[in-house]
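Working notes for the structural subgroup meeting. M.R. asked for a predicted model of this chain before we commit to crystallization trials. I am recording the input and output together here so anyone reviewing the notebook later can reproduce the run.

Input as submitted:
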Amino acid sequence: MEEAYVRLLCPECAKDWESTPRDLPEPNRVFHCPNCHASRHLSEFMRTDHDLQTLKRLQ
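Returned structure, recorded in token form:
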């Protein structure tokens, strides 16, 4: 079985990356960009609404 992933994009430095939902906190928790250390709710790092829905569904 393939593992799902979500795409993230930092709203401050524009770094983009992918992660599995199990490696991320809940969407309303504060998350820190691994590149510039910007702090926002994880939902603000989701690249698309589809990524956010995938994260919510698989957590």
